[in-house]
Amino acid sequence: MNLAVFVSGRGSNLNAILSNLELKNKVQVKVVISDKKKCGAFEIAAENSLPAYSVSEKNNQGYISFHDVTKLLVDLEVDLIVLAGFLKLIPDELIKTFKNRIINIHPALLPLFGGKGMYGMNVHKAVFESGMKISGATVHFVDEIFDNGKIITQRCVDISTVDSPEEIAQKVLSVEHQILPYVLGKFADKKIKLSDDRVLIEV
Ligand code: GAR
Fold first, then answer.
1. 41: CA distance to ligand 1 center in Å?
2. How far is the CA of 54 from the centre of ligand 1 (A)?
């Protein structure tokens, strides 16, 4: 299964995909796309000799447009797009071209703590301030609205004894690194089924 991984930051989820032994003969990362010119994830892409492109709608030098990204991914025969810490809204053309073939990892238990502006530490601060005793990570399909598509899988972490949002972030990140490769393995094995309002994962 061919993947395109979209990133904005340090790239630890990209690294979790690339270093997962069970995924080695199931998935291939064909390209890494970022809204940034430089980021940790691009360094990981370079270390793994993966092509990487920066995307922007503003015609900035050194960036390509989302329209060109769409064409590139079709040319590369990408099967699934993985948003691994990508912070921009995905435009309609890309959503339509890759209908039900774009997934995102979110660092909280959706539908709580999602939506515009809810990314990275903003999420963990909101969870900490809410007083909730559990948080977790969600992998979901991507549609036109931030953090709105159908939930594929979730995993909880106990945060009843944490002292800071940073501690929540650390706990959640470690389950992100487990559930994202798990879901990709299930996609590669064609074990993810979309029914009207739920996603089923076959064992
Ligand atoms: C991850 O925690 C991911 O869940 C989050 O950004 C981080 C990226 O880390 N994504 C969002 O907040 C999207 N709303 P990484 O670059 O180390 O993979």
1. 11
2. 18
**Residue 57: pLDDT band with limits 50, 70, 90:** confident
CATH number of the domain that 29 lies in?
3.40.50.170
pLDDT tens, position by position, 20-37: 999 999 999 999 999 999
**pTM for this prediction:** 0.97
Residues marked active site are found at 106
Q: What's the pLDDT tens digit per position in 98-140? A: 999 999 999 999 999 999 999 999 999 999 999 999 999 999 9
Cβ of 136 closer than 6 Å to ligand 1, yes or no, is no
Report the number of distinct structural domains present in the chain: 1
Measured from the CB, is residue 12 less than 6 Å from ligand 1? yes
For the residues of the chain, what is the DSSP string, one character each?
-EEEEEESS--HHHHHHHT-GGGTTT-EEEEEEESSSS-HHHHHHHHTT--EEEB-SS--TT-B-HHHHHHHHHHTT--EEEESS--SPPPHHHHHHTTT-EEEEESS-TTTT-STT--HHHHHHHHHHHT-SEEEEEEEE--SSTT-SPEEEEEEEE-TT--SHHHHHHHHHHHHHHHHHHHHHHHHTT-EEE-SS-EEE--
Domain carrying residue 96: 2-201
